[in-house]
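Researcher: Hi, I'm a grad student and pretty new to this. My advisor asked me to get structures for two proteins we've been looking at. I'm not sure of the right format, so I'll just paste the first sequence and hope you can take it from there.
Model: That works fine. Here's the first sequence with its structure tokens right after it:
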Amino acid sequence: MRLVNEPMRPVAEGTPTPRTVASRTVASRVATSRSAAARFAPRGMLPRLAIGILVAVIGSSGPAGAGEYNRVLDIGDPAPAWKDLPDTKGNLHSLGDLHDHDAVVVVFTCNSCPYAVDVEDRLISLANECRNRNVAVVAINVNRVEADSPEAMKERAEEKGFTFPYLYDESQQIAKEYGATTTPECYVLDGDRHVAYMGSLDDSPDGENVTRRHVAKAIDAVLDGKTPELSETVPIGCRIRFERDRRRRR
């Protein structure tokens, strides 16, 4: 720490400053992620895919104690608990209701995001697999636009035949507590309800050429009492539409 009256030490020409190093690191991570994404992104998807990656990577430089790509939670942190969130049938749900499950998968999603739509069939398949493994799958929507309204959620759930609760949080608070920024964004909670994994469902945003099922592998590890080999990935998708807090004039 530099004292108030301590003179700044001159930096030799060409010596990278902490800010420069950080900028290069972010740029490198963006370039690496975009290069990897280009291998499986169909024509026309790469521009919006790159934007999603850029937002996620730049947003990952959060406060101390946060994860690599999450500004709020780190692996091993206690999972924030939601309470009395309504599903598409009007029933209320809380994390505490799932106390008898060995693991819980939380997915922040919505109706209007093309990435969220692309993941629906794979999410249904995952939920069906989890049913016989004592693992709960819960989807949560916090967007406040008409396309993501409770009425639209109900229509979507019925149309797709969702086999998992699709909850709505009008306050958007639970997404903020999880540090979720995109749809879809997944979290795997272990038996003690600590975060064991967070990020993408798998390594293919559009579901084509999936080579690694991140969430499924994390579930396997948790049920075996192990730490997932890969515990955090970049969540790629649309930005959650958080309402801005308006300051009141005095």
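Researcher: Oh nice, that was easy. Here's the second one.
Model: And its structure:
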Amino acid sequence: MLQNSIHIWITDIDEIVDPYLLDIYLALLSVDEVSRYERFRFDKDKKQFLVSHALVRSVLANYVEIAAKDLQFVRLESGKPEVVNEDGEYLPVKFNLSHSGRYAVVIVTNDIDCGVDIEMIDQNRSIMDIAENCFSCSEMIDLQSKDGAEQKKRFYTYWTLKEAYIKARGETLASALNKISFDLHHQNQIYADFSKLSSDEFILESKKGWQFDTQFINDEYALSVALHHESKLDIKIDMFETIPMQV
């Protein structure tokens, strides 16, 4: 079903208002997921968790031919989840989930390490202090060359790229933000500088290539993707809008 492409599924959480559909989502969740859902204090946060995890289950069910409710997950040492069958065997599909504001998004690959991040662009957020601690010199120079809304968009482009890369590697955010620097000045191509990685990490990265992609959703959300694969050519990325379990 994936063949030679990567699939991204995106859901507008605010569009889902049918209480019956939300009940269906809740019935899909595992005992642990229900427990996590119930710990949220605010309805908005509960709905975001509910819809995003129902999205993961409903999407993956189409690829692994297991009912959405019966899907089982294990967490690697990094905390990154993997989908397994009833015997605990890893299935040849990888995924990653991100959500922010009104959107939830999941990326699905044919056993390719992947990361996705979506962030709502907060025009009131003070970004320069964050950037000074997390961005490279070249990224800071680029960021300072922009003004106003364009500066905010460039900040979130860098930030989501870093998050997607970290998620694809299965690392924690704090441990890896400064290990990679992005160059956005080449048309239709995003370059990454890995020179700050340790020698062992650099050798590991060299065994495969990285592919990055970024875009804006309605000019209000930045979305970035990181893929770690052996293909010499970029893999096609297809995006689909969906409402989980909607008939």
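Researcher: Is there anything I should tell my advisor about the second?
Model: You could mention this: The mean pLDDT is 90.
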